[in-house]
Amino acid sequence: MNTSLDDIDFREMGRLCLGHSVRQTANLLTRHFNRYLAPLGLEITQAQLMAVIASGDALSSSDIARYLGIDRSTLARNLKPLEAAGLIERHKLGGRKVASRLTERGVTLTAEVHAAWEQAQRDLTNELGAETADAIRGHLSGLRKTVRALETVAKKPPARPGGTSS
User: Where does the record place the HTH marR-type domain (predicted)?
Assistant: First the structure.
């Protein structure tokens, strides 16, 4: 296959690509929530981790990673600053399982995080409208289900265009 890059409409590719659109939106949402969390010295990634730990739904690091849809090495990198700041402590559950829990300082800050998140969420929802916000959540849920289904079907990456493998 001998294609010139001049023959490819990359603007159209960017316009149609769901991955690009979702990443672009995720970056904007991250900045939105980070503005509200900045006075607390946190970013949305850290605040989300603290909320998951506070919920008690995810006991082990594996549970937290699975819930957030990230790998365990990414989770470990994100937990380190929280532990260093004295907001969480990690402890063995048995075997190789490690759990995280909020410290007293972490509990106090997580309550403040919740208030900041509520304001950020309220401002965003007020701007969008509640019905639109619900529709977006529904569409994103459907997208996640579709991608998960495709992941289970495709155990290996598809062949490269033109029939060659990487």
Answer: 15-152
Q: What is this structure's pTM?
A: 0.81
**Cα of 82 vs its chain's centroid, Å:** 17
What's the CATH number of domain 17-152, 3.30.200.20, 3.40.470.10, 1.10.3720.10, 1.10.10.10? 1.10.10.10
Q: Which tens digit of pLDDT belongs to each residue from 124-155?
A: 999 999 999 999 999 999 999 999 899 888 76
- Tokens 């001049």, located at residue: 6
